[in-house]
Description:
The complex is a heterodimer.
Chain A: H1 3-32, H2 49-56, H3 58-91, H4 97-103, H5 106-109, H6 112-127, H7 133-157, H8 162-169, H9 174-202, H10 206-211, H11 219-226, H12 233-262
Chain B: E1 7-18, E2 21-32, E3 36-40, H1 47-55, E4 62-67, E5 70-71, E6 82-85, H2 97-107, H3 112-125, H4 141-153, E7 159-163, H5 171-188, E8 191-196, H6 199-205, E9 208-213, E10 216-221, H7 223-228, H8 233-238, E11 244-253, E12 256-261, E13 266-270, E14 280-284, E15 291-293, E16 307-319, E17 323-330, E18 336-342, H9 343-346, E19 355-361, E20 366-369
Parallel strand pairs in B: 3-8, 3-9, 6-7, 7-8
Antiparallel strand pairs in B: 1-2, 1-4, 4-5, 9-10, 11-12, 11-14, 12-13, 14-20, 15-19, 16-17, 16-19, 17-18
Amino acid sequence: MNWEKMVTKLLNTVIGIFYIFLWTPLIIVIVFSFSTHKYGSKWEGFTTKWYGKLIANEAVQDALIRSLIIAVITMIAATIIGTITAYGLYKFQFKGKPFLRTSILLPLVFPSVITGAALLVFFTRILHIPLGYPSIIIAHIVFCSPLAVFIILGRMQRMDWTLEEASMDLGATRFKTFKRVTLPVLLPGIMASAMLIFPWSFDDFVITYFVAGVGSTTLPIYVYSQLRFGTSPILNTIATLFVVVTIIGFFASHFFQKLDIRK
Amino acid sequence: MMSTPKTCMEIKNITKRFQGVVAVNDVSLEIKEGEIFSFLGPSGCGKTTLLRLVAGLEIIDQGDILIHEEIVNNLPPYKRDCSTVFQQLALFPHMKVFDNIAYGLVERKVSKDEIKERVFEKIELVNLSGLEDRYPHQLSGGQKQRVALARSLVLEPAILLLDEPLAALDRKLRKEMQVELKRIQREVGTTFLNVTHDQKEALSLSDRIAIMSAGKLIQIGTPTEIYEKPKTRFVASFMGASNIFHGKAISQKGEMFELKMEGGGTIYVPAPEDSEMNDISGFTIHPEMIEITPDLTGIESNDPLEETVFLGTVKEVFYQGDYSELSITLDNSDMVISTFLTRKEMLDSVVENQKVAVSWKSSFSNAFSD
């Protein structure tokens, strides 16, 4: 057999196995969320009753609403902060700029356990910020903004900055130019960031667990707290929810990035 | 009776440095109302920087810029009465053609009806009727060019600045747009300030040209003056002259200087205005003004003040189809003359190694200084 053909076949098999390992657990969980089995660990028959139970469960409702509120606020705040940061990093020259630019990535690169623990100490010992919504939201903004900076900086590299010069040449001030030209042109990048930040915040467990304090249960924290009771079909439904939210966010972000390039 | 045209814009002793490098070096000039004025020069000569200084996109280090006699040195671009057509065109991708052109008018809070009227008037002027609802990515290069032009013209600026507007177009389109630009300018009467590195474009488009090199202004004049009477070796060479010879002026007879050539021999050239004998460093003669005669009889008796004649041998013939380039070595000299003959003139009667007489009217040559 041809040596090249063999290597190609081998690589294809490896990739195939990779994707199987990636998707099978998720598919199983989604499928079992529709199973009538009592513990949600086997397939017995089709039902949507677990979803009904999910909606009726008050603890879940509470955690879901809290996660949603945090994710929406984080999405808006982190996108705005990220956009302004990217603008400053791109346009202005100042001392230590390369260092600042690289350090933006730190929250993404550090192990979340370390970031979570550090933020907890920072909130309780140094800033005295109440644990709960304030601490969670601030923490989420901290590790989500770099995402926005990254995506928007990338978009800025590809942008035609003579557009700003043309706008000012035609009579618009810097502020008007930002409003009428720069922002609309950057909008796909900004939307792409927002679509990615929402699931990023919604799905987060480790950092949130550290800074949530008592009584502020987000959905991921709720799931963790239920695990000691063993598997349950409700966990499958929640997991499905996470998967669906994340996939929608990812594809929406991809759609906005594609929108960009076409222009 | 012809009145002298007003001054539209004046530049006085402008200097601009970027990190220690002088980009524009003490440049002064005046642009008249309604003319097409071009800055011409090689890459890096400072012409684009000068344009940007006028537009307000860069700030001058020294000197003054006056538009309609108003000093604009410290005014930001949105306060100056000029408008720029950028090399990259910079059309707003998220706006239709109509909105692109209307941009400046919207900024000035002009009424909707007036905007409509003025925008459509300009759309017609640049031949874009029917395309007002398209987006920039749906337009051809030439069409985008016209949108950029209309966008700036609709504001009726005192002076329109064009930064190598035709550089990105292919040759055929460039020629078409040159004609268009001139027609549009004559129709609206706005003063045009054009930056280009293309000599032919500058010659065909401009009323006056300023040649720049390394930040300095070398010569200003009409296209005829620049091409036929280059003041320095640089200008002659930049405008494409191929017969550039060095020498020193040794005497003056009437309006002619006698030049002793480096390669050997002496010739007479017209004395340029405002030039001393000591300034002269050489001369040029354009190939198209040279006559070639294979017949060597009767050429001995000529008055060198009227006609310059040399004997030489055809070194090489370069066939180009519609014409042939000839390279001729002169007898008793190092000089090599370049000229060409059209296909009609050639008729196979001039070949390599043939002895020919090379002649031109002495008043056709041009002396330069360095």
